[in-house]
Automatic annotation (TrEMBL):
This is Zinc finger CGNR domain-containing protein. Transmembrane segments: none annotated. Coiled coil: none annotated. InterPro entries: ABATE, ABATE_dom_sf, Znf_CGNR. Residues 147-189 form the Zinc finger CGNR domain. It comes from Planotetraspora kaengkrachanensis.
C-alpha cells in the first residue's frame, strides 16, 4: 500500500507513548475477528526497528528471532492486561519478559540538542527487543501501571498509558481510533452528511 508521497505504508503505528505498546501494536486490530499481523515475515521486524528509530538500518532477522519477538509481544500484552485489571502477570509471561530484559540492550544517549537517542553502533534486533522488554517491566512495575488502558475502539483494543490529567482518555490515539469514533458519531447524528 502506498501513502502520500509514494512511500510504502507498512501499517506500523507509533506515538502511543510507550515503546512496549508501540511494539504490541505490531499485531493490529486485536479485537477484530481477524487481527492484522504486521510482523508477517522476519524483514518486517527489522523494518519496525528502523521505523521506531532504534536501528539505523535493517539487520538480518531469522525466523527464530521473529518467533521470539512475537512471543515477547504477546507476553507483554497478556501481562499488561493482567496488571490493568488488577491482577498479576502469569509466571510464564513474566519469565519471557525477564529473560529478554536481562539481555544486553541499546544504550541511551543525549544528542547534540539534548534529545534522547539510542547508541546504534553494532546494534541488532535482539538489542531492541531487550529494550522493549525493559520498557514493559518499567510500565508494569512503576507508577504507569495504574494508568494502563485498552483502546475503546473494539476492533483496535490496543494498550496505552493514559497520561491525560483527568485520567479518562479512551483511545490509544486520537489521530486514528479517536478520529474514527468521532467520524462515526458524526455520521450517526447526521445521516445525510455522508
Amino acid at each position: 500500500m502506498e501513502s502520500e508521497g509514494g512511500r510504502r505504508d507498512d501499517g506500523f503505528r507509533f506515538g502511543n507513548g510507550r515503546l512496549c505498546f508501540t511494539f504490541t501494536a505490531t499485531l493490529g486490530d486485536r479485537g477484530a475477528p481477524v487481527p492484522r499481523e504486521r510482523l508477517a515475515v522476519p524483514g518486517d521486524l527489522a523494518r519496525w526497528c528502523v521505523r521506531a528509530g532504534l536501528l539505523a538500518e535493517a539487520s538480518p532477522v531469522g525466523p527464530a528471532t521473529l518467533a521470539g519477538a512475537r512471543r515477547l509481544r504477546e507476553a507483554i500484552d497478556r501481562a499488561a492486561e493482567q496488571v490493568r485489571t488488577g491482577g498479576f502477570p502469569d509466571p510464564r509471561d513474566a519469565a519471557i519478559l525477564n529473560d529478554w530484559a536481562a539481555r544486553p540492550a541499546l544504550a541511551p544517549r543525549l544528542d547534540e540538542v539534548g534529545r534522547l537517542r539510542w547508541r546504534q553502533e553494532g546494534a541488532q534486533v535482539r538489542h531492541v527487543l531487550a529494550l522493549v522488554a525493559r520498557d514493559a517491566v518499567d510500565v508494569l512495575t512503576g507508577p504507569a501501571r495504574s494508568r494502563l488502558r485498552r483502546c475503546a475502539d473494539p476492533d483496535c483494543a490496543g494498550l496505552f498509558v493514559d497520561v491525560s490529567r483527568p485520567g479518562n482518555r479512551r483511545w490509544c490515539s486520537m489521530n486514528t481510533c479517536g478520529n474514527r469514533a468521532k467520524k462515526a458519531a458524526f455520521r450517526q447524528r447526521n445521516p445525510r452528511s455522508g
